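job 3f2a | input accepted
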Amino acid sequence: MVDLQNNIVTQYRGFWWLSEKESQRVPGILTRFSDGRIILDLIGSFDSDENNPMGDWTSNLNGERTILGIDENAKLISLWGRRFAPKRNFASTFAIVSYRVRVMMYGKHCNSLTEKYNYRILAKIPELSYWCIPNLLKESITYDVEENPTSVSIQLNLNNDILNPRAISELADGTVLRLYDDGICQTDGTLLSPIIEQYTVLELWNGKGLSLSESIHIIKRFEKFLSFSMTKQVYHNEIKIQDLSNPQTNLSGKIYYNSSFVYLSGDKEQNKIVRPPHFLFNHDIIKDDFSKIIHHWISEDSETAPLTDHLVDSIIPNTNNISIYFLTVIQAIDGYWQRYREDNYNKSKKKNTSINEMLKILSSELTSIPSMNKYSLDIDAAADSRNYYSHLLKKSSKEHILYGEDLLSLTGKLRTLLLFCILKATGFSDRAINKIIEQYKGIFV
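job 3f2a | predicted structure (445 res):
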């Protein structure tokens, strides 16, 4: 049932049932793997009965099901997943069924991904602490008269007041997104090796309620925004949910809320310690426009959001396959033009704007920024190389074709242009764009 050669993060042994069939419980093991897979293996079938102990293999084979469970520690678990292709075991009198889980919620039973609750969502993204207000830990050392160190103190200057966060934005549906500081200090009881950590929390809350699907969507969109700011892919390493409708009171009379945790298929185990990344921009650069930019970015409709995601994915360097990297970048610039600029520029519609013309216009806009006045782009080489690699033309059919390091250098300049296009397309003001380029013009040149 479980391939022990794979790295298993956690296993949960217990009973499982469909949300609409609570009386029909099936034993099984839920496994989270380090490569992001979440697999539920059942010893039996939800669809079996006395007349058909192997179950009906044709029912709900392609449909996603809501599965509830309870593990050996009496923890409640909710799952949403699809069944694998049928696994028949003709030597056995019972079915062995596996489900590929897309979403797992640990600590609470929830009948629907779209049902709204009075949730407070808390997400941790390791790189976010570098992006928003780093260096909150302050160290001070006391010396004696002979200048020997006598004591060391570490102060963690937190601003975890949710009423006065580091950053805040209200989204189109009324969801409030906040960034605030938090930290921990853990010891092994001897104080010989304390763990002191600062981090920035992404918090979501909506007075009308939030569903799991809405929360996951917002977190994924914010991850993509951070990926853009760092020109590398970033991912969360924790999603915690507090149900504010069910407050608890501890022995000292303090109110608290039980927490549940959400795991998504594809989430890989990450080291919480990340190297300080390089930024295209950070919170300090856009803090005056943060609310507007995040509102625009996350509130994009279902049609344009995948396009923005594609543009961001296109700027992630891929120097191992230079021609593919080149085509990805230049096709993304073409896509940006067709989606956001073509209708206004080419109103006659008699002929589509050529790649040469659109590169010329976009380059001129970029060079109008004072710090980029030395930017230059070999437009003929970009157009000819694009047609050569896209359509597998003969070398003799195009005059300006680049290869190897020359093509990589050209791709770097096109990537600069694509970064500029994405900033224009995703709600950044001209003032913010100028500030970003002036602050980090080394990335653009």
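job 3f2a | Confidence is low (pLDDT under 50) at residues 50-61.
job 3f2a | closed
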